[in-house]
Amino acid sequence: MNELTTAREAGAGHLSLGADRVGSALTVLMDELAHGVVIASAEGRVLHANQAAQQVLSRRQALAVHEGRLQAHDPKQSRLLLQALAKGGAGRRSMVSLRSPGGWALSVAVVPLRGESPGQAATLGLFLSRASVCDTLMLCFFARAYGLTNSEEQVLAILCQGYSAPEAAVQLNVAVSTVRSHVRSLCSKTQSNGVRALVGRVAVLPPLGSSLHHPVH
Asked: What is the 3-state secondary structure (H, E, C) of 122-182?
């Protein structure tokens, strides 16, 4: 029998893998995401964190792990986090914005996960915001798909971080006219009507972030 078997539930057909294989596949899938994802208890105990989340937590800025539990960088924000977790434990979704001492902001959406048995402690999914519009991997895919030059890709990466053309020129140590020339070429190649539309196209790319694991072909 094929490993992929047909099962029926509530009168509707669906395809199902064995629980172990699904769990393994979901772990790999989560590690491919550019968004940090943490599975935690309503008390903030970390049960699992994908690679993107581990990178955020290891910086110990807006959010960190202490003795196995999530905590913000100061008591006030830790209380906000605990309130969001409590709402999740009560079955309500919420979002909290946390800040590091350096001003770096991190938005955390708290989602109660369904399927727990009666009486079982609530399990929550925490989805962390990204630091940039697009991860390097997907930006590289985008550049390959539209035949962008290395210089155009560099300019696009800077624009996606919210910088203007003059600011991009300073970072690249080139004339503003050079950056604007690249922007015109970018818009022409991608058929985008201006920088906002161009960045918007990049922003809705699939949120893959495992550029350290797989080469771009």
From this structure: CEEEEEECCCCCCCHHHHHHHHHHHCCCHHHHHHHHHHCCCCCHHHHHHHHCCCHHHHHHH
Tell me, what amino acid is at 195?
V
**Alpha carbon distance, N-terminus to C-terminus of the chain:** 35
Q: What's 11's DSSP letter?
A: T
**Angle at alpha carbon of residue 17, lines to 15 and 23, rounded to 5°:** 130
Domains detected in the chain: 20-128 (3.30.450.20), 136-203 (1.10.10.10)
Q: What is the pLDDT of residue 211?
A: 45
Residue 132 tokens read as: 């940039």
With a cut of 50, list the residues of the chain below it in pLDDT.
Answer: 1-16, 211-217
* Helix or strand (DSSP H, E) at 213: none
- CA torsion, points 76, 77, 78, 81, in degrees to nearest 10? 130
Report pTM. Answer: 0.72
Write down the residue that tokens 């309500």 correspond to.
92
